[in-house]
From TrEMBL:
Keywords: Membrane, Transferase, Transmembrane, Transmembrane helix. Residues 1-21, 704-767 are annotated as: Disordered. Pfam families: Transgly, Transpeptidase. This is PBP1A family penicillin-binding protein. The keyword Transferase applies. The chain crosses the membrane at residues 29-56. Coiled coil: none annotated. Residues 752-767 have a biased composition (Gly residues). The keyword Calcium does not apply.
Length: 767
């Protein structure tokens, strides 16, 4: 009463009445808001139930067959012949009685700790995953809300890829999971899961993996072994213990920790299991006698990679019908050629390696590929050198890095002159040397390329400009993170980022294919089309993109024909087959040469890339251990490999010659772009001026470099000279990688070098 009295005295009766109306009005608004929110929630819930019911009604019933079988993916060659069926074999099914409790515990602990408490879907798990993913959105490691039952449904009915996890699919998956829980016991569901999951290396089911990896029955697995198997299904190719031991251990230990946390193992058992070597007890993989699989292994690897990159599908779980661009006749021949089944090529030893890619020049389709030779029988989907950018393709880069851009952007003729003389990398005191440590004076761009001279190549690169050269390369599917002057004569790059930067045989074959077809670049493709389980089809054909003018493609091709007929690539010559190509050789640094006993020219990499009007083929040769050198006895194997393979594919489809574009004229054997105003001299020196200059005449070059004016005497003197490696080349302009890619030299002369010797390749200093 006193409070009320004070209130009256302070504010008066009228004030009190107004305040009461305001309070009632505010309360009414809050009530309306709460009512609206509740209504919206109810509408949302009812709407969600309606959507769920709408989607769920269309779910196909899950069958015993779908639960029990694996969704195999089939791979067909270009003629429609099946050459691989992933998932149809390599599976031993376990019965419930064969599955030990520790394997059940491992799977449930890491995949679905509330497995025995929910009825197919787990709202608590979903809510926990949602909160975790919101609070950890920036740190990765997102959690899924699917139960083991839902995972089994996905493996049996739907795609497992994230892009296919639509609202419709999730609703159907949840509906089928609840239905399955009513029809099957928990133990039956777990058994189906154990028998169905993909375990890496072409194996399905944990019993198969246990027998293959450990040579054991499931009941004999240790805690550490059971944990490894339980962790594999999440990412079987990434966690398999043979090639990815570190990742496998991390995943296994995660499983062990969840078992400890879930009170399924003791602390001492956990400590012992974590301390176990991840590869302890592993048996040698035995894929059986499958010759076809070995023949197509590298190609199949790239097919799977393309599927993962471009479709977000999973060949191990999604049941795809993949129609590839593989020509099985070509693939068989290239495999046999690499593995010397008929003695066609005299390889120096079993460790000598070959990698090669064949591309259809008019489509970009990869028709055959080999990524190595004498590969062990237990390797499945192994390393593929053909797509790796970790080795140097040497002077095969000159047409795409120097001469192509010069013809394209500066419109030089093939007869334009350039001086092959002493020259330093721009902005440095580091000399650019040729393979023979001598110079030819003023020569045409045609001769500079077919004789594979380094100085003219670097000069052209500087004239074109690094940015324009990079632009030209990008149009051909090739990138360097930082293109350097040394890349004028080398593909070596310190930064690769997988295969993003640098050049592989795959990239080089596709780039040269653009020269063949008149200037159109097609991205290399291993797949023609894929048929999915839902009946839809996806095509992978490429329309291509213009990479250069037709005149550029023709002019480069015309010069590269000379490489084979009279330049550094005569070993690649094929009777009655019109073709063009380029040799490439990398070098060791001076320090590396000092560590390798040798008595003649040695190189870490020798390559050849060539093409006809039908196919482009790029070949790399060398040793896996880069410090094992290619000697003069085997330096022409790249060309011989190319010749045999190209001859084989040309026997039933004879290539034609190229047709000169109308805007190109041939004068005196050289090609000129009609209307071009470009100077006929790259560096301002003509033939006449050069030979009239007594200080820089052709003879004086040889007089200054040896005691005799004859090229032969200079060649002999060179064999006893010491040539500086690239250890002093500044990183600002020249790559300081392990390979002596700046053309500064080997300590001995090349035997098969370019120059005026028409019988050989271009071994030595990156010709």
């Amino acid at each position: 009463m006193a409070n009320r009295s004070r209130s009256n005295q302070s504010h008066g009766t009228s004030t009190k009445v107004k305040k009461g109306k305001k309070t009632r009005k505010s309360g009414s608004i809050i009530l309306k808001i709460l009512t609206a929110l509740v209504g919206l929630v109810l509408i949302g819930v009812l709407g969600g139930i309606g959507v769920f019911a709408y989607y769920a009604k269309d779910a196909e019933p899950i069958t015993e067959k779908s639960l029990d079988s694996t969704a195999s993916s089939k791979f067909y060659d270009i003629n429609g012949n099946l050459f691989e069926d992933i998932g149809s074999e390599n599976r031993e099914k376990a019965t419930s009685e064969e599955i030990p409790q520790r394997l059940d515990d491992a799977i449930v602990s890491v995949e679905d700790q509330r497995f025995y408490k929910h009825h197919g879907i787990d709202p608590i798990r979903i809510a926990g995953s949602l909160i975790h993913n919101i609070t950890n959105s920036d740190s990765g490691g997102l959690q899924g809300g699917s139960t083991l039952t839902q995972q089994l449904v996905k493996l049996s009915v739907f795609s497992t890829k994230a892009s296919d996890q639509t609202l419709k699919r999730k609703a159907q998956e949840a509906w089928l999971a609840t239905r399955l829980e009513k029809e099957k016991s928990k133990q039956e569901i777990l058994t189906y899961y154990i028998n169905k999951v993909y375990m890496g290396n072409g194996l399905y089911g944990m019993k198969t993996a246990s027998e293959t990896y450990y040579g054991k029955n499931l009941s004999d697995l240790s805690i550490a072994e059971a944990a490894l198997l339980a962790g594999l299904p999440q990412a079987p190719n990434s966690y398999e213990p043979y090639e990815h031991a570190e990742a496998a251990k991390k995943r296994r230990d995660t499983v062990l920790y969840t078992m400890l946390e879930n009170d399924k193992i003791t602390q001492s058992e956990y400590d012992e299991a974590v301390a176990t070597d991840i590869q302890a007890g592993l048996q040698p993989l035995n894929t059986g006698d499958n010759t076809t699989r070995k023949i197509v292994d590298n190609y199949l690897t790239e097919v799977i990679n393309q599927i993962e990159e471009e479709t977000d599908k999973d060949v191990y779980t999604d049941g795809l019908e993949v129609h590839t661009n593989l020509n099985m006749d070509q693939q068989t021949y290239i495999y046999n050629l690499a593995n010397n089944t008929d003695g066609t090529i005299a390889y120096p030893d079993d460790d000598f390696q070959v990698a090669a890619t064949m591309v259809d020049v008019n489509t970009g389709n990869v028709t055959a590929q080999i990524g190595g030779r004498n590969i062990a029988d237990d390797v499945y989907l192994g390393f593929n050198q053909a797509v790796s950018t970790d080795r140097d393709l040497g002077s095969t880069v000159k047409p795409i890095t120097d001469y192509g851009p010069a013809f394209e952007y500066l419109q030089y003729s093939t007869g334009a002159t350039i001086t092959d003389a002493k020259y330093n990398y721009p902005g440095t005191k580091t000399a650019v040397n040729n393979w023979d440590n001598s110079y030819m004076g003023t020569i045409t761009l045609r001769q500079a390329l077919y004789d594979s001279r380094n100085v003219p190549a670097v000069k052209l690169f500087e004239k074109v400009g690094a940015d324009k050269s990079a632009e030209f390369l990008n149009g051909l599917g090739i990138q360097y993170k930082d293109i350097l002057a040394s890349n004028a004569i080398s593909s070596n790059t310190e930064t690769q980022e997988g295969t993003k930067y640098g050049i592989s045989t795959e990239k080089m074959a596709a780039a040269y294919a653009a020269f063949s077809n008149g200037g159109t670049y097609y991205k290399p493709s291993y797949i023609d089309h894929i048929e999915y389980l839902d009946g839809t089809t996806q095509s992978f054909s490429s329309a291509g993109q213009k990479a250069m003018e037709e005149s550029t493609a023709y002019m480069v091709t015309d010069v590269l024909k000379d490489v084979i007929t009279k330049g550094s690539g005569t070993y690649a010559s094929i009777y009655n087959v019109t073709q063009a190509g380029k040799t490439g050789t990398s070098n060791y640094s001076t320090e590396e040469l000092a560590k390798i006993p040798h008595y003649s020219t040695i190189s870490p990499d020798v390559s050849f890339t060539g093409y006809t009007t039908n196919y482009a083929l790029s070949v790399w040769t060398g040793y896996s251990n880069r410090m094992t050198p290619i000697t003069t006895a085997s330096e022409n194997i790249a060309q011989l490999f190319y010749r045999n393979m190209m001859q084989y594919v040309s026997q039933d489809q004879a290539p034609a010659d190229w047709t000169k574009p109308s805007n190109v004229s041939r004068v005196g054997g050289e090609l000129y772009i009609n209307g071009s105003t470009a100077s006929n001299s790259v560096d301002g020196t003509s033939y006449n001026n050069y030979y009239n200059n007594s200080t820089s005449s052709y003879n004086n070059y040889y007089d200054n470099s040896s005691s005799s004016s004859s090229a032969a005497q200079d060649y002999n003197n060179y064999s006893s000279s010491s040539v500086t490696g690239n250890e002093t080349v500044p990183s600002s302009s020249v790559n300081n990688g392990n390979t002596n890619n700046d053309g500064t030299g080997s300590s001995t002369p090349p035997v098969d070098g370019g120059g005026d010797d028409p019988t050989g390749g271009d071994a030595g200093t990156t010709p």
